[in-house]
C-alpha cells in the first residue's frame, strides 16, 4: 500500500492532534498554519510544516496540495477563512477534503461547497461525555445519523451470566447487539446462546429513542 499523503491546515488543538496522530501512525503529514509560532511548535512532530495563509490561492497551489490524498481543514473560529480555504481546495481538485465545522450552519455551508466530510469534534465529544455521565457503563456513543446511533456499554451486573436470548434487547428495546468485546477480543456475530461475562462490553445499534431507553435501564 503506497504511503498516503496528508495535509492538515490549522494547528489549533484539533488540527494539531490530527497531524500528530497521523504522523505517529507513520504517515507523511504537511502541517500548515498562518502563525509562524504554531508552525515552529509543530515542526518536530510532522514531515513538513509551513507558515502560509490558506486563503491565499496561489500559495496553496504552489504547495501542490492537489497531489495530497487527504486534506483536513481544522480552522474553527475564523469561519470565513475556513469556507474560503475549503472552496479553494475543492477547486484545486483535492481528492478528499475533511473539514471541521464550528456549528450546524457552518457545517451545512461546508457540505454545500463540496467538503467530502464535515466533522464536529466539540459537539460529538460533548454528546459522548453527556452519555458517559448518564452512566459510567456507557463507554462510547457514536451518532450514525440523526436517527441512529451505536453505543458501547459495559455489561451491567444483572446481565452477567445471561445469554443474549435472555436479555432480548431486540424485543425489549428494538436494538441489535452487533458485537461483544471481551478481554480485548471481539465477537462480531454473537448468537443467541452467547453468555455475557463480567467486564464484557456490548456494542449495540438502534434508533436514538430506543438506545436512550436501553441506556437508562443498563445504567
Ligand atoms: P481548536 O479548538 O481545535 O484549538 P479552533 O477551532 O479554536 O481550534 P482556531 O484557533 O480558530 O481553531 O484556528 C486553528 C488554527 O488555524 C490557528 O492556529 C490559526 O492560526 C489557524 N488559522 C486560522 N486562519 C488561518 C488561515 N487563513 N490560514 C492558515 N491558518 C489559519
From TrEMBL:
**Matching InterPro entries, A to Z?**
NAD(P)-bd_dom_sf (IPR036291), RCK_C (IPR006037), RCK_C_sf (IPR036721), RCK_N (IPR003148), Trk_Ktr_HKT_K-transport (IPR050721)
One BP annotation, GO: potassium ion transport
List the molecular function annotations (GO) for this entry. Answer: monoatomic cation transmembrane transporter activity
Question: What range(s) does the RCK N-terminal domain occupy?
Answer: 3-119
**Could you tell me which residue ranges the RCK C-terminal domain spans?**
136-219
Q: Gene3D superfamilies attached here?
A: NAD(P)-binding Rossmann-like Domain (3.40.50.720), Regulator of K+ conductance, C-terminal domain (3.30.70.1450)
The protein depicted here goes by the name TrkA family potassium uptake protein
Lineage per the UniProt record:
Bacteria, Bacillati, Bacillota, Bacilli, Bacillales
